[in-house]
Design a protein that fits this description.
- The protein is an alpha+beta fold.
- It has 2 domains: about 1-125, no CATH class; about 130-158, no CATH class.
- The chain contains 5 helices and 7 strands; from the N terminus they run βββαααααββββ.
- A 3-stranded mixed β-sheet has the order 1-3-2, covered by helices on one side.
- β2 (about 15-20) and β3 (about 25) form a beta hairpin.
- α1 packs across α5 (about 100-125).
- It is elongated.
- The two termini are about 25 Å apart.
């Protein structure tokens, strides 16, 4: 999957979008938008993205993005007020109660967030660090572990 940016003229009215199995694109620099699109991707990984109506997908992504950011300590960026307005607007447009929709989608939302947090934990467990300075290693030319701080090829510290 790729992550990219786009100009507002490309997707008028969309702050970001997710193309199933392919990419996430952002038209704004906003952590809540990134989290929203990431939750769409997690929901897709779980095989749930195409289940239910568009309102379900959007509520899972918006609520899940706010939950994810709160879990990660980004209280301000979670924008709970903006999240609630988004949920209310989508629910009202579909003649549904915002609370009823959230309640019905809570398990799905939490499971999508869990996919993201579990994946982050798995990736962190696989990360390799420089045995000299402790900085993360990057693969240069796809295969040579190189320290991102001292820029030397290095042995790997567990």
């Amino acid at each position: 999957m790729t992550v990219g940016t786009y100009g507002n003229a490309d997707r008028v009215g969309a702050a970001g979008y997710y193309q199933p199995g392919r990419s996430i694109a952002l038209g704004v620099e906003n952590l809540a938008t990134w989290a929203h699109e990431l939750v769409h991707a997690a929901d897709d990984r779980r095989g749930e993205l195409q289940n239910g109506a568009k309102i379900d997908r959007e509520i899972v992504a918006e609520l899940g993005g706010a939950v994810l950011l709160r879990c990660l300590g980004h209280q301000h960026d979670a924008d709970l007020g903006g999240c609630w307005q988004y949920v209310e607007r989508h629910a009202k447009a579909n003649n549904r109660s915002a609370l009823t929709v959230c309640e019905a989608l809570l398990r799905r939302t939490c499971e999508a967030v869990a996919v993201i947090l579990d994946t982050a934990d798995e990736l962190e467990a696989q990360r390799q660090y420089c045995d000299k300075c402790g900085a993360p290693l990057a693969l240069v030319d796809g295969c040579v572990p190189t320290c991102t701080r001292c820029e030397t090829e290095t042995g790997i510290a567990a």
